[in-house]
Amino acid sequence: MESLAVVFRTRVLAGAPVVLLLVFFAAFPLAKTSSARPQPEQTAIAQQGVYLVFPFENRGASQHLDWLGEGLEELAIQRLSAAGESVYSHSGRMNELERYGLPATAKLSRATMLRIAEDLDADYVVLGSFASDGTSLLVEARVLRVAATKLLAPIRETGPLDSLMDVATKLAWRTVSANGRSYPLSLADFSKMQRPVRLDAFEHYIRGLIAADDDAKLRNLREAARLEPEWPDPDFALGEVYFARRDCTAALPWYARVPKTHDRSVEAMFATGVCQLLSKQPDKAEETFVAIQQNLHKDGVSGADLPEILNNLALARAEDGKIPDAQVDLRKATEMDPDEDDYPFNQGLLALRANDAADAAAHFREASGREPDNPEDRAFLILALERAGKKSEADEERVSAEEAFGPKGLPAVRWDAKDSAATAKFDRIKMELDTTQLQLELKPAEMSGASAAGAALGSDSPANWIRRGRQNLAMGQVPDADRAFRAALAGDPGNSAAHRGLAEVHRRQGKLDDAVKELQASLQTRDSAVVRTTLARVYFEQKKLELARGELQKALKLAPNYTEAKQLLEHLQAPKPADKKPNGGAQ
User: Fold this and answer.
1) How far apart are CA 238 and CA 268, in angstroms?
2) Alpha carbon distance 295, 312 (integer Å)
3) Which residues contact 256 (CB under 8 A, 6 or more apart)?
4) Same topology between domain 339-432 and domain 437-445+459-573
5) What's the alpha-carbon Rg for the chain, to the nearest Å?
6) 133 pLDDT band (50/70/90 cuts)?
7) Which CATH code for domain 437-445+459-573?
8) 8 A C-beta contact, residue 288 and residue 269
9) Under DSSP, is residue 475 helix (H, G, I), strand (E, B) or coil?
């Protein structure tokens, strides 16, 4: 069998809807899009929880159908999401695999899937397999409950190979229907919620997503866009391929075709703003980033002020001479993400432009404290200290930097505040916006009436209190986050996610001992490489290096390739360059 697209290229089947957010942004002023097909009216349904879907395993003989593994994953995500469930996107799962140092094609055990789901605070894992003899298709799905771990009975659907979209719809409906609760939708109603997409277009789309090289990606995605010109998913994917090449000229027309109702529109707008920054169009970039914030705020989303958006908005305003507004934006971003060094670094650059070297030094010192291994942070700290007339402090920092990075480890820094073109090259633009958690937090916003009251953030269930706490943290509203996580613990004292959230609250408040206690409480309920690495970072901040090293070693036993744990352990174990002997002679 050559290809589903070859055999069934003219068939249109019901199925693949827009993923995750559905309808959130009231305006997308950057471009006009073609009129979308009318979508079925959304019925407000209380969510069962957060789903994490993995690719389905090919148990058949034909490797040519391997693309169906990711295809069935994507169809499960789309169908569950269209019916109102919260689902991690394909990119969200891939990001987590990358953190664990696992290749995209890795075959994971159920134990590994469970651990990843626990660290993402997902409630259900969906996994499965498929087999085909070239004519018929058999698909089996399993649901793995995360809390009170239980693998539910298998769900099987069969049909002709060209009925893939219908098979996936039935499988998704049976998955939510059999999940231990009375599910209100019939199969017919569930099916009406799905967006029709041609099977051949869907195949090209999936093949484009998983292709190993850009030429194959572009060829397949363009064909998918040609076959389904009103389906935005290939348009967004094409924009992403070109954007990764930093080819903004080619990326922007594809991003412009992503409608305001699409779940990836915020990312398309964000990338558009980045391109405008790179193209020296600060006024347009500011308009774009402000529009993202306004649209999110309009929908009552507390996480609208994401630090990446604030950072880029600040750079656009600074380039346009609006320094006070830029400083306010960067201050918010710095408070919201206490681990990221780019935000205080950019604050330091603004202070240098304002000829306030002392203030700049304070910001660069904070940036260097957040990321001790970044030589550029240290180089600018030394520059700012020298310009502030603090030569002895600058000399001390230079000696310390030579110990950390070697005699030639610092980059040469030249700064002329009057040369805007030369200074702008140091600006740290955030190139990506991770909306995985934001998408999950936004889901209740599309619901209304009594169902929304029960399932949205006003609910008193521990899961919804935790979600509210995360939103508060995203906004930098630490006291509100504290109350939300404590409310979750009142309903479920052993909830590891709530302990983990409360630990972050204490960490932002500088209460490191309390943060340690909460992280240890989280580990008592559920061992986790992520939590142990976070605990190691707190120990590192407390200068308890042996305790930090011990936690990192335990984390790497759980997840041997976990990126953050490996990097921090390498930093702790890195030998410092030997001190120079006086006059170059031996003692």
Assistant:
1) 11
2) 17
3) 30, 31, 32, 33, 272
4) yes
5) 26
6) confident
7) 1.25.40.10
8) yes
9) coil
CATH architecture of 4-32+44-212: 3-Layer(aba) Sandwich (3.40)
Compute how many other C-beta atoms are within 10 angstroms of the C-beta atom of residue 71. 27
Distance of CA 514 to the CA centre of its chain: 28
Give the type of residue at 560. P
Read off the pLDDT of residues 193-205 as tens digits, 9 standing for 90 and up. Answer: 999 999 999 999 9
pLDDT by residue (tens digit) across 423-439?
A: 788 999 999 987 665 55
Q: How many residues does the chain have?
A: 587
Distances (CA, A) of 489 to 56, 297, 482, 499, 523: 36, 28, 11, 8, 15
Q: Can you give 155-167 as a three-state secondary structure string?
A: EEEEEEHHHHHHH
> Contact, 155 vs 93, CB < 8 A?
no
The position carrying tokens 């695999």 is 97
Of 575, 564, 512, nearest in space to 539 by CA: 512
Query: Any residues with CB less than 8 A from the CB of 587 and at least 6 apart, and which?
Result: 581
**What b/e sequence results for 543-575 when a residue is b if at least 16 CB atoms lie within 10 Å of its CB, and e otherwise?**
ebeebbbebbebbbebbebbebbbebbeeeeee
Distance CA 332, CA 35 (A): 38
- Higher pLDDT among residues 353 and 436, named by residue: 353
Token pair belonging to 335: 């408070």
Cα 96 to Cα 100, 117, 277, 476, 564, distances in angstroms: 6, 9, 29, 24, 11
Write down the pTM of the prediction.
Answer: 0.79
Distant-in-sequence, close-in-space partners of 118: CB < 8 Å, separation ≥ 6: 146, 496, 526, 528
Share of the chain above pLDDT 90, in %: 54
The domain locations on the chain are 4-32+44-212, 339-432, 437-445+459-573
Asked if residue 481 lies in contact with residue 466, where contact means CB atoms within 8 angstroms, the answer is no
Phi first, then psi: give them for residue 550, nearest 5 degrees: -65, -40
Long-range contacts of 212-215 (CB under 8 A, 24+ apart): 214/241, 214/245
Query: Look-up: residue for tokens 């007339």?
Result: 389
- Report the top-level CATH class of 339-432: mainly alpha
- Spatial neighbors of 583 by CB under 8 A, at least 6 apart, are none
* Rounded average pLDDT over 483-490: 92
Token look-up 């069969």 returns: 158
